[in-house]
Amino acid sequence: MIKNISNLGDAALYCDFGKEVNKETNTQVINYFKSIQKKNIDGVNNLTPSYNKLIVSFDLKKTNFKDLKKLIESLKINNEQNTKNKKIEIPVCCEENFSLDIKRLEEKLKISNEKIFENFFNKEFFCYMTGFIAGMPFLGDLDKNMRVERLETPRVKVPKGSIGITEQFANIYTFESPGGWNIIGNTPLNIFDNSKEIDPNLINPGDTIIFKRITKKQYQNFNE
Amino acid sequence: MNKNYFKIIRAGINTTFQDQGRRSLHHIGIPSSGAMDNRNYLLANKLVGNRLDLPVIEFAYLGPLLKYFGDKINIVITGDVNFTIKTNNDELKGNCYETYNLEMGNELNITSTNKSVYGYLAFSGEFDLRYQWSSCSINTKARIGSNDGKKLQDNQELILSKISQNLNNKKLNYINTKIEKIRIIKGTNFDYFSEKGKKDLFEKEFTISKLTDRMGMRIEGQKIENIADTNIKSEGLIKGTIQVPADGNPIIMLSDHGTIGGYPKIAVVISADYDKLVQLTPGSKIKFKEVELSSAETLFKLYELETQNLISQI
User: Fold this and answer.
1) Are residues A128 and A24 in the same domain?
2) Where are the domains of chain B?
3) Global pTM value
4) Does one domain contain both A49 and A91?
5) For B41, phi and psi rounded to 5 degrees?
6) Which residues in chain A are closer than 8 Å to B27, comparing Cβ atoms?
7) Is the ipTM of this complex over 0.90?
8) Is residue A80 assigned to a domain?
9) Does the beta-carbon distance from A8 to B188 stay under 8 Å?
10) In Å, how far are A101, B210, B226, B241 from B217, measured between CA atoms?
11) What span, in angstroms and rounded, lies between the C-alpha atoms of A59 and A43?
12) Which CATH architecture group holds B181-313?
């Protein structure tokens, strides 16, 4: 349930689902997001679900904070889970030139790289949200002994396909972008297809992701 | 074949096609984009008799130099812009908000924006452009929109798919005013900042940094002191949001902003001041002023009314 709705500026609702970041809270956020999306409310511009928040931005020419808040509070929220959620395997290569931060991870986590990979691969991750850049999935949760801070100085360019980790989360850089997550490997799979108007994202909130380790040769042969 | 087109002799610094932008895509990470200064975008279309939601050319600082080939058209430039039109035997200095005929071989040279960032060029008709998610707006970072999601390039040809027969010349008396006090509403993490930090935000003068583009505007001045946490759990953003990262220098989200961010939100710029905010050039001094939500709503109504009045005068 939404704990509180406040205004973010004069043209958005800030719906707070509580402090906790976990699958249950996020499933509620996604339920609200999908229910509101289906209603196709006139004047609503964008819905941005995240771990434990939902931002509803609107056209101030058509509605306002007070009216839209009332409308959202009175909505019947359907249980939308399991509707279209997928299980997706992501092939990842951890060769030296892909696993950019493996040395830093070994130092910070105080475990060997093989142990890091063992903790990371073949486990189920839940997709909490997509965004920042087009199609980037925010996945969780990493094992407790795998949690590190962001880089002190973010990279200006993180290569396309990079798999990053920080805190309890993992993500995938869908195209070259600035970023501060610890890069553990790279996937040859295209995660965001900008030529598709329908479902350009391979991974969507609620999906389950499993990272599978591949060799350099498999990586090179992947798109042939 | 009756081909009407512009040849780009010089593309300019950041020249793109923009329209009203996209909606309902933030949840997959695609920002709204669209013309930065919405009022000047609408006025450009109206002056040449176009539908108000058609794409136009947006340029920043140094605009394009275009040579025209084809049947006579009307063009207009909005904003605060210096430009010339060169015909076979003459070169005239153009005025913004006044339409001009362009004929075969004429050259339109947009030399600079004047104490502002963005200007708009529209012509009577339509460019031949690809729509993506109902918009031609170019987002160069995600490579989305018309022109393969890229800035306009030198030597490119811009094909006009339709030109209007209506070539009535129009003129509007309008002068862009520069904003000095940006009005803001407290953000959702306002209390992450110290009493001194909050006071500094409203009392100190800030300078627009060079690190400013269609995604965001960095500002410098007194560093805003955080007493809670310099990170939040990543969550959605909207344009106008002012985030303060660990270094204490605020960043204002603009039309191509990332859809999710993890820095505390100290405030949000009110909708009525957005068009004027984006026109501030690096080095400009600004101050912030707090307003309540109800005042922000009224100020937007007034701003919108003023825009509609200008449109109806054309």
Assistant:
1) no
2) 4-163, 181-313
3) 0.94
4) no
5) -65, -45
6) 33, 37, 46-49, 129-131, 205
7) yes
8) no
9) yes
10) 30, 8, 20, 10
11) 5
12) Beta Barrel (2.40)
| H/E segment holding residue A91 | strand A87-93
* Identity at B216, one-letter amino acid code: G
CA distances from A27 to A53, A83, A128 (A): 11, 12, 8
Handedness of CA B291, B294, B300, B305 (dihedral sign): negative
> Which H or E run contains A74?
helix A65-74
Q: Mind listing the pLDDT tens digit of every residue in chain B (314 residues)?
A: 569 999 999 999 999 999 999 999 999 999 999 999 999 999 999 999 999 999 999 999 999 999 999 999 999 999 999 999 999 889 999 999 999 999 999 999 999 999 999 999 999 999 999 999 999 999 998 899 999 999 999 999 999 999 998 899 999 999 999 998 999 999 999 999 999 999 999 999 999 999 899 999 999 999 999 999 888 899 999 999 999 988 899 999 999 999 999 899 999 999 999 999 999 999 999 999 999 999 999 999 999 999 999 999 99
Same domain, A130 and A209: yes
Contact criterion met (CB < 8 Å) for B241 and A136: no
- Does A131 contact B258 at a Cβ distance shorter than 8 Å? yes
Taking the CB of residue B95, how many other CB atoms lie within 10 A of it? 12
CA A163/CA A24 separation, integer angstroms? 25
Question: Which strands, in side-by-side order, build the sheet including B56-60?
Answer: B16-18, B56-60, B118-123, B73-78, B100-102
Residues 159-188 of A with CB under 8 A from B: 174-175, 177
Does A168 share its domain with A144? yes
Residue ranges making up the domain that contains A190: 87-221
